[in-house]
Fold this sequence. Notes:
Residues 1-18 form the signal peptide. By secondary structure, this protein is mostly helical. Helix content is 49%, strand content 6%. The protein has 18 helices and seven strands. A hairpin with an 8-residue loop joins strand 6 and strand 7. Helix 7 (108-115) packs across helix 18 (352-366). It is elongated.
Amino acid sequence: MISRILIAALFVATPIWAQETAPPDTDQSATVAAEPAAPPAEPTAAEREATAFRAFVVGLRPQALAAGVNPQTFDREVADLAFDPRVVRADRGQPGGAIGAPSASINFAPYKRSHVEPVRIGRGRQRYESLRSQLSAIEAKTGVPESVMLAIYGHETGYGTFTGNYDILRSFATLAYEGRRRALFTAEFIDTLKLIDKGFPRSVMKGSWAGATGFPQFLPSVYLRLGIDGDGNGKADIWRSEADALASIGNYLVNAGWKPNVPWGVPVVVPSTFDRTGLASSLTSPRCPRVHVRLSRWLTIAEWRGKGVMIAGAPVPADSELASLIEPDGPGATAYLLTTNYQAILDYNCSNFYALSVGLLADEVSRPE
């Protein structure tokens, strides 16, 4: 009797699911083999470049810190840096004979028409009047004519209307990584970090794809060397102060050898019978040799007059002043006698088109209407 009750109790205590469900099959041979995991996808070319770029930039940290960059500044500013292919395309896509030869013509006239034209002259005259008090003080200090500083300002940024929209820290990192001029652009990258340490936000320091920045379009290394305070507030801010920018332009030209009270040059007429034999310069310039080869050897203004060259403009350099001759549109067109101050403008931008246009715009801006 007891055994029947016990058996009945055990039966009742067993849950229904246990009564109706077969025990699990523990036969390992019945288990279906899992599919092997797919291999990870190969990184794309863009991903590989991003990784390599990142490694390169991070690798500059010891060099930057050795140059005095704050470690926190470096880590913060490089955290979001990315390679900029636009900068490399612009760099690789860049595009002014001897004196007297027809092949020496560099076809300056079209460039002059587009750079020394009524709109730029008119705006220059307006800015000349509004900035006169600041400009005259800078001229008194540097000896550089107000009009020349203003003409460079006009050529570089349209009197401050366009200064570029590239992140110059990113541009320098990209150009240094690309490698053709790695030492140059690595140094400019580090100098940009120094400017950030000086309190200039990266968001303010926009510029060209090549890193020229501010109203004067200085490279960071140039700013660190030659940027000066022009408005008297104790800080040289070439991004937001026109007075600082113009004073820094003047200081640059002084550093490049500007001589006070000497015109940059003057237009001349070369007679059709002019003998160009022996006028080629024997000097070779290590910087921009193609630009300098288009300039003649040095003679005094008096000596050029003695050869029949006729002055066709003003102001006229003194007879004792040395000058070289350029015929930018070939024989028969307007030529120019250029003083050593022209060389200072060339130092700012090594292009005869640029330097001639700066000089001519300066003359127009300062000429009474």
